[in-house]
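Quick start: what a row looks like.
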Amino acid sequence: MKKENFKTKESLKSLVSEIREDFEKRKKERKPFEQTWLLNLNFLMGNQFSGISHRGELEDYSKQYFWQEREVYNHIAPMIETRLAKLARVRPATTVIPASGDLDDINTAKLSKSVLNATQSRLNISALVSEATKWSETCGTSFYKVLWNTEKGALIGKTDAGDIKEGDVEISVCSPFEIYPDSNSAISIDDCMSIIHARTYHTDVINNIWGIDVEGESIESYSLEASNTLGGLGYTASTGKIAKTLKHSSAIVLEKYVMPNKEFPNGRLIIVAGDTLVYEGELPYINGDGNRRGFPFIRQVAADSPNLFWGTSIIERCIPVQRAYNAVKNRKHEFLNRVSMGVLTVEDGSVDIDNLEEEGLSPGKVLVFRQGSNPPQMLNSDHVPLDFTYEEDRLLTEFTAISGVSDMLNTHAAKFANMSGIALQLMLEQEEARISASGESVRFAMQELARHILRLYKQFATGKRLTRLVGKNGEVEQFYWSKSDIVCTDVVFETENELGDTIAQRRNMIFDLLKAGLLHDENGRLSNAMRLKALELLGLGVWDSALDVRELQKRCADEENLSLISGRGEPAILEVHDHEAHVASHSAFMLTKEFRVAAEEDKTLTEKMLKHIREHKRFSVLESQIKKDILGE
């Protein structure tokens, strides 16, 4: 690996020591936030009798009496599941804005969009966003790391050292436990001067990646484990718990990213594995605005915190309500236990206390008490106070108010039975308004992901690449491209926030437009193209898309263009072709920058294309003549 400006062992050790000291400092500064994340995870998994002590450590607290109820009535888990289900709808379609209105720029923007769609499909961006959203909803913050992996992509050659591949984009999700900014008060990633990414690797993995041997050690990490908590009257209940575990034969790899400054105009990246310097050099990726080098990280939050790098999770706000709810329910059940089992008063020495405690007052029991003493009596137990029920309902309402999500129609069906559809729709829109801020963070993260992908391709993609894109109906589109075709990386959304746009609402809107005649042409008829578009918006486009002959003719002409430009030979011209549509498609393709670049490499390409167009025209003339002969003209 590359090592610059550090010639002696002393200077190397000094740099490693500096990075590790900086990491320990940041770790100490970030600890209060880390304890909050661990508390959130414990409450989510059901270990809700825990808290942060005055020493700043996460601790479990035990019951005061053996008979205390300590059941957990977890309302946080379904609340997070509901929020995740709503945020799963946020998957906006993105498009690339052309640099100008020129035809070449428009075509390159379309090509960039196709490259982006193919990459997002290959990387399964939706699954990555779902994983990151789980972390952001639980801990408040999550991160995406966008890298260029030289070990991915198609094989382009072989050497004695191994296979040579063309390289490709790689995206991973980082939990907030792995990221250490230089300041916890930075409001975004761009406001940080440096970021340390710390992750624990097995020593064998470090050897495979960087080719160095590092001495392994046992490193603390956090994982989910099963734990038994004491319930009421001595029984136990199994719950999940986030606890510290040890990873053996491992080492911490520290990657410190430093933004460009006067001393390092292209930034700086330092990688330390254990006590060994692995890499030192400039920031590798030109992924910022204005062709600047920047961090490979993208931040996503559940809710922004003022003047704070870390977002806020809804769990933090619900923890006090969850504790109060558990307390109310447990005290209520304790009261019911007293009512059902009763509390017995006996005179000292009048009965066998041990036998009474062990067996209780079972049906048919013969209770013997000392002659002359008072017989045992049951204390009068009142009914459960209604205050328990009122407080329980109030706490459930607080859960809804804090989380911003509720199952409104199921929970309060009787309340809304006589409301109009418009009123219900307005209430549903208000339900979605609370979670829209989290949805906007997901949309922004996906937009930044798309920009990073295009910028990395523009920087590293070498030579001509063949990309396959599978359409909605299963058709496979193939196209050649190179990094020179990615002129603009400005990505915008094609759709609005999907949280307020359900499938039922979209379908109703399409039906209303059709009834109003707004989708008809100037003759008041619904064209085939508009009919297919309406079916696609309704989610039924697969049924009838094959009947759009013009679309099939266009795809066939595009395949012929690809065949000619890739040198696979001249495609055959058939009678079933719409020759006028093919001539228009081939002529437009010859005016693009892609064709001009290919024609400079292959001097015979222009003549081949013109010959193909002339054949289409000849077939078109023959068809016209045949029609005239048939009609007797």
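That is the whole record. Residues 458-631 form one domain. The first helix runs from residue 9 to 45.
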